[in-house]
Design goal:
369 residues, alpha/beta, TIM Barrel, Lyase, Ornithine Decarboxylase, Chain A, domain 1, 2 domains, 8-stranded parallel barrel, 11 helices, 24% strand
């Protein structure tokens, strides 16, 4: 009988987090490493992963919201924290109270940071992402506001749109963005000599030394997922998250019997099926019905029928010998088999980021390593 916590859990290997941080530090060379722990560390647990990352060599942390920064501070994490998302109203004051750094790309944002007493601001330039950041024609107004405001400029930053596309039709745009940003950042260095220049995400960090500047901001690689959507071991990364459950029911069905809502799967033979008490309410997407495999007894077995909110069904085969209580791995390794986030992402036609971020909070995180 599997020793699960409740019906299922997400197992988080902090030893793998530490290994991946050290690998990123190695790849970053002389550049500092910011560990990005936004969105609850991409679903892995922000506080535990942030502690591990800073112990393993990351010198700062990146989040998206003030609330995420406040959570880190409430748990005693005193390293520099950058709130990378937009702020409004009282969030400027909350940022100052938490002692974190913020991002600004308009004169109004710089003035709001200064009025709130924020300890440091990073000026964001839009080098081609087309989202947050000052466009080239607005850069002069931003710089004038920053030089006249009572808030130190501690960073100059941008974000790459296509760093993960090394060989496709958008591969060249990465270099175009890099040239644009380097030109603008170099010009600002004389005005803000203490500012750290940074633009590289995980993909850019591993792809091009020219993109690393003073600091890199890595997220997905820390969690053992490939920023290039390939086998993470190619980059020396170790997957961090496993999702584990058990067989809650095993029974025999006959040829032509159907399973699940909509009767999307019918047996071609008499066979054994098993029920796993995990569904799309836990982040196991409905799109994986008839389109994925799980691990039972170290072997791959197909997910059959529609994935429902709370459960899914697998075919164990006519010769299946598993019984109720047998461990089931939906993500991770069992024996010599492994199901990766990249595999699930490919089956869902999405990216590995969405796989880990989508693992629901109904599954408790269990930390090992």
């Amino acid at each position: 009988m599997i020793g699960t916590i409740e019906r299922a859990h997400a197992r988080i290997d902090l030893g793998a987090v530490a290994h991946n941080v050290r690998r990123v530090v190695e790849a970053a060379g002389t550049s500092r490493v910011m560990a990005v722990v936004k969105a609850d560390a991409y679903g892995h647990g922000a506080v535990a992963c942030a502690r591990t990352a800073t112990q393993a060599g990351a010198t700062s942390l990146g989040v998206h919201t003030v609330a995420e920064a406040e959570q880190l501070r409430a748990h005693g994490l005193a390293v520099p924290v950058l709130v990378m998302g937009p702020l409004i109203g009282p969030e400027w004051g909350r940022s100052a109270a938490a002692g974190v750094e913020v991002v600004a790309w308009t004169p109004e944002g710089v003035r709001a940071a200064a009025e709130a007493g924020v300890g440091g601001v990073h000026l964001e330039l839009d080098s081609g992402m087309g989202r947050l950041g000052a466009r080239p024609e607005a850069l002069g107004d931003l710089v004038r506001a920053a030089t006249g405001a009572a808030v130190p400029v501690v960073g100059i930053m941008s974000h790459f749109a296509t760093a993960d596309d090394r060989d496709g039709e958008q591969a060249g745009f990465f270099r175009e963005q890099l040239v644009r940003f380097r030109s603008a950042a170099t010009g600002l260095r004389a005005t803000f000599p203490e500012a750290r220049i940074h633009a590289a995400n995980s993909a850019a960090t591993f792809r091009d030394a020219d993109a690393r500047f003073d600091m890199v901001r890595c997220g997905i690689a820390l969690y053992g997922c490939s920023p290039f959507h390939e086998d993470p071991s190619v980059l020396g990364l170790r997957p961090v998250m496993s999702v584990v459950s058990y067989l809650a029911m095993v029974k025999t069905i006959r040829s032509r019997d159907s399973v699940g809502y909509g009767r999307t799967w019918r047996a071609e033979r008499g066979t054994q099926i098993g029920l796993v008490p995990v569904g799309y309410g836990d982040g196991y997407a409905r799109a994986l019905g008839n389109n994925a495999e799980v691990l039972v007894n170290g072997r791959r077995v197909p997910v059959i029928g529609a994935v429902s909110m709370d459960q899914l069904t697998v075919e164990l085969g006519p010769e299946g010998t598993e019984s109720v209580g047998a461990p089931v791995v939906l993500l991770g390794a069992q024996g010599d088999q492994r199901i990766t986030t990249e595999e699930l992402a490919e089956r869902r036609r999405t990216i590995n980021y969405e796989i880990t971020c989508g693992v629901g909070q109904r599954l408790p995180r269990v930390y090992v390593g």
